[in-house]
User: What shape does this take?
Amino acid sequence: MEQGQRFQKLDFKRLPEGEQRERVLGFESRMRTRRSVRSFSDEPVPLELIESAVRIAATAPSGANQQPWRFVVVSDPEIKRRIREAAEAEEKRNYESRFPGEWLEALEPFGTDWRKPFLETVPCLIAVFRIDYGLDGERKVKHYYVQESVGIACGFLLAALHMAGLATLTHTPSPMGFLGEILERPKNERPFLLIPVGYPAPDAEVPVLDKKPLDDVLVVR
Assistant: This one.
């Protein structure tokens, strides 16, 4: 018999239709309250919540189950300061010369600029890295569907953090090479996303937004 991947019986519990609806509608209701926050309290967040959310993120599907992700949790004030300084330097260049006019126009209603004080105020940053290839000694092991896999894992992570009662922001200062340098990550790991995590400041505000109705995003054939 050929040697290969081992298999086991699927552990799957069929739910009654009523419970199915109750669960999905409850989850939808909770996720509809999720908002991107840029004004955070400095109140500490229990590490246990962050660890649980990362464990959930790590259950995401990935190409060939290669799990090409790394989650670096940062709470050290000095490291957060360095990340803020580096991010603001890149963002300042973006807003002053790199961003096209159309992008600046799209951002204008949100009142954002290159200043990112929340990167220091927030108690916790999660830097997500994509692992483009594995290492088997000196041999590189190609990873497949890395971008898609890490994106799905980040979706799991954001949902888990929100369900835990925490506020988040998806922050993508570009370029993000400084994250690998500051956090001393190896060359096969590339920055993918920076997620500030904490509690909203008491006076936090968010823009009034509309989400597209179901008819605009769903096609049933």
